[in-house]
Amino acid sequence: MKNTLVTRNFTPDFEVRSSSRTIAGLAVPFGTITDLGHEREFFVRGSFARTIAERGVGYVKLLAQHGAGGGFAIGKATVLREDAAGLYAEFAVANTRDGTEALELASSGVVDGLSVGFVVVRDDYPEHDLRAIHEAKLREISLVNFAQYPDAKVLSVRAAEDILNNLEGDTGLHQIELAERQMETLI
């Protein structure tokens, strides 16, 4: 499976900061085994270190649902770092219709998973059906409906007036009411 783009979904610990149009969270937990049906796998700490060092942070884009339907990126990484828990990422979300929609869906908890698109560079099998990924080229991270690793959760959400400003002239009253209710919960 080398040189094949693979995706894995995780339910991350992440927060949404609408005031700065930022989504942040744990994109890949290290050492957590997931069952893919045909095999189990986990990521080893350090598996993304080389790709981050060589490509830099801005190379990694935030997509919605892996760009299903030919979608565009909705943001780009501003922070990528590995720590004991896993690959932590922060993304600046674009001030577009799709970016605003993604912020609203994440803020409300409707879409709360992260998924990584990667190419395996180096792996091994410490057990018959258990794959350890030691190095992977990170292509993208996506905000998704359902995550492969359901053990993480939303940490916090911050909403701001920019959601209202972006919705003016959009589909109208329903979305504006949603944003107003969201802002009221912060007061």
From N to C, what is the helix and strand string?
EEEEEHEEEHEEEHH
Mean pLDDT figure: 77
Largest sheet: 11 strands, mixed
Percent of residues in helices? 10-25%
Percentage of residues in strands: 35-45%
Rounded radius of gyration (Å): 17 Å
Morphology call: globular
Structural class: alpha+beta
Count of β-strands: 11
Number of helices: 4
Oligomer: single chain
Number of domains: 1
Terminus-to-terminus distance: 51 Å
As residue ranges, the low-confidence spans are 151-159, 161-187
Description:
- With 187 residues, the protein is α+β, with helices and mostly antiparallel strands.
- The chain has one domain.
- The protein is built from four helices and eleven strands, in the order βββββαβββαβββαα.
- Strands 1, 2, 3, 4, 5, 6, 7, 8, 9, 10 and 11 form an eleven-stranded mixed sheet that branches.
- A hairpin with a 4-residue loop joins β2 and β3.
- The longest helix has 12 residues.
- It is globular, with a radius of gyration of 17 Å.
- It starts with a strand and ends with a helix.
- The C terminus is likely disordered.
